[in-house]
Every structure is written in C-alpha cells, then in structure tokens.
Amino acid sequence: MNKEEYIKQSEQDLLHTYNRYGVIFEFGKRVYLFDTNGRKYLDFAAGIGVCALGYDNEEYNQALKDQIDKLMHTSNLYYNLPIIKAAGMLKKASGMDRVFFTNSGAEAIEGAIKAAKKYAYTRDGHAGHEMIAMKKSFHGRSLGALSVTGNKNYQKPFEPLLEGVRFAEFNDLDSVKELINEKTCGIIFETVQGEGGIYPASQEFMEGVAELCREHDILLILDEIQCGMGRCGEMFAWQSYGVKPDIMTSAKALGSGVPVGAFLMTERVAEKSLAPGDHGTTYGGNPFVGAAVCKVLEIMERDKMTKHVQMVSEYLWNRLEELRVKHACVIDHRGMGLLQGLQITLPVGDVSQKALERGLVLITAGSDVLRFIPPLVIEKGHVDEMFHILNQVLTELEA
Ligand SMILES: *Cc1c(COP(=O)(O)O)cnc(C)c1O
Question: What is the pLDDT of residues 15-41, one digit of tens each?
C-alpha cells in the first residue's frame, strides 16, 4: 500500500476522533522525524511534549530493550525492581514523598482527585467534598479529568460530570477566594496551562492560592503533565515559584515515549489518603515503564537538562520575540522554558499545515496559539532553522 492508501485505511478503521495531518512518520533521529517518503522534518512538537530526549537515543533504547528481555510485567501484587528505583528517583527530583504510577496523564489526574477526596473524607469523617479548577484548563479526557477541565465544548455531551467542581479564572486570586467553602478539598491547576493557550501561573497567583490552601486545609494539586520534567527550566515548573503542592501529577515526558504517568503527594496527605482497597491499576508502574522512567531521570540529571533548557529556551524566547515584532499577525508571546506560545490572528491550522509542508512539525494550543514544545535536547541551530521556516510561512500567509 502507498501512503494515500494507508491513510484511507486508517480513516476507515479507526474511530474518527482526530483530524490528522496527512503524514505518516516512520522513524526519528535526534530532533528530526522522517516520513514514509523519506522526507525530513524538524520536530517542534515532540509528540505533544512527550519525546523529551528526542528520537533514537541509544542509551534509552538499550535500557528498554534490556528490560523487555528480562521482564515486562508482573502486576502490582508483587514488588518490582525498576519501579522501586524509579519511585526513589522521582521523589528526589520532586521533593514529594509518595508516588503512584499510572498509564497516562488522565489517570494521574483521576488518582489525584481521589487522593484529595479521600484525604478530606478521613479528616472530616464524611464524604461530599468539592474541588475548584480553572477555566481554560486541560486535565484529560476521562470523566473525572474532564470534570475539572474548564472547556465547555469538551464537557457538554458527557454531562452530568462529577458533582461539586467549580471553575475560577486562572491567575485571578479573588475568583478563587470567592469559590472556597467548607466543602472545598482541593484546588487544581496546571502550573503552565498548555492546551488552553500557554498561560503560566503568575507568581502572585501561585503564592496566593498556596496561602489560601494552607489557611483552609485545602490541598493544592498542580498538574505538571505537560510543563514538568525539565520543560520549564526546573525539573518541575512549580519549583521556580518557591511553593510546593500537596499533590502533583506527571506524565508525557516522564517516560519519553513509553505510556506512563504518576501522581505524587506529601507524607502529610498520604497518611490520610488512599489505602489498600481504595485505588489500583493492572499495568501501572510495571517493570518496563519503570526502566524507562529511571533512564529518563538518569539522563536528565546527568546531562543537566534543566540548565540546557534554561539556555536554549532563552534563545527561543528571543527569536520568537523577533517574529512578534516583525509580523503584525502575532499579537502575544507567552510561556516558560521550552513551552512557549505565539498568539496569532491568522488561522493557526493553516500555519501549522504550511509549516509541515515546509518540513517543520508545529502544533497549536487553544484556537489561536502556535505552541512551541520541542524535544528538550534541541540546540540553538534548530531554533534558527524553525525561525526561518516559520518566518517564511507567516510572510506568505500574511500577504
Ligand atoms: C496531556 C495532558 C493531560 C492528559 O494526559 P493524557 O496522557 O492524554 O491522558 C492532562 N493534563 C495536562 C496538563 C496535559 O497536558
């Protein structure tokens, strides 16, 4: 079959939940993807922030192959070595105390919600607690995660969702304050909103919410699924704010391509939270994903990935500022580290399509934002290469 036939087959067989770009990637090298016609693309999407190490990392690949040959899965009825090591490394990287591994981001969010509810249940001796989430947030597609996702379009067909979730304006402390009542058990938000359009939490908001949480014994739940794992210049984006969550979630780059997520909590929360019988997963944290998490964390720490991100992301910031100044269609530039966005007045879908045709993989966020979320291993030269392609595309579409 040729490419067109494969695509036709795909559209016949797979449930149509995505409008896909007409390309089939076959393999990757470092920060480039190659399609079935042998065409090369510079990747500024990293599989939606997953492929932090880029592609074809020999050390990572070898660690996975070795683990496949040893043991893939045992279930959580038994201990397993890779995940014990992974949990220790993740605790060290985050400063959190307890880890539960999941298979996806949405499941990490589900677990975080349950953990907060159980904490409040133990403390108060009864259920019926509520959560505060943010407008424009994104936490995943399962029903619990969807319930805290501040996007009516995603929610509407699936209502009724979880009861007792109320939405505040992100970065508006008063709007959070207004929603707090005696039932509130958790406040959840992304340290940097991703899908909603790349909005970092302001320092004031972060500190203010943390203070409110302390005052009312509400749990601060930070979703670091997209912005964490080194992407924003620290291992986890909240670490640059000088606050600490009670519960946090991770996924995406955590396995750099292997499906794995996690929710973590402090010991104070864990003591009153999920206990045997309260939560579980068959696959979650199996030896295979454990080996991946260990290798990712090991490489990130050894290669001082956060330092590299700080350096290259500043360069990306400056080059995107050039585009902002140069092109009238660019109306805002936001972000943190290697998670940046350009808000534009041109149709973002057209820009990403044209970029793809010119060999640049670029994705969007929200309805009017170009999202820059490359592998963390990109270099300045790759930023320049992206700049030139995007500059051409914007010039052409503005004409
Ligand atoms: C991607 C994402 C999720 C959901 O993760 P899945 O693995 O797709 O379930 C949740 N929160 C944030 C911030 C994300 O970016």
Answer: 999 999 999 999 999 999 999 999 999
Six-digit token string for 90: 């993740």
| C-alpha 108 to ligand 1 mean position (Å) | 9
In sequence order, the 6+-apart residues with CB closer than 8 A to the CB of 77 are none
Q: Which residue's CA lies nearest to atom 11 of ligand 1? A: 139
pTM, rounded to two decimals: 0.98
Is 309 within 8 Å of 230 (Cβ atoms)? Answer: yes
Q: Ligand 1 within 6 A of 105 CB?
A: yes
pLDDT per residue as tens digits for the range 186-239: 999 999 999 999 999 999 999 999 999 999 999 999 999 999 999 999 999 999
User: Strands, DSSP E only, in the chain?
Assistant: 25-29, 32-35, 40-43, 98-102, 130-134, 165-168, 184-190, 192-193, 199-200, 219-223, 247-250, 261-265, 330-336, 339-344, 360-361, 363-365, 369-372
Q: What is the mean pLDDT of the chain?
A: 98
Q: Is 251 in the pocket of ligand 1 (CB under 6 A)?
A: yes
Tokens of 26: 């076959």
Q: What is the mean predicted confidence (pLDDT) over 150-160?
A: 97
Q: Cis (ω within 30 of 0) for the bond into 157?
A: no
Please indicate whether residue 254, judged by its CB atom, sits closer than 6 Å to ligand 1. no
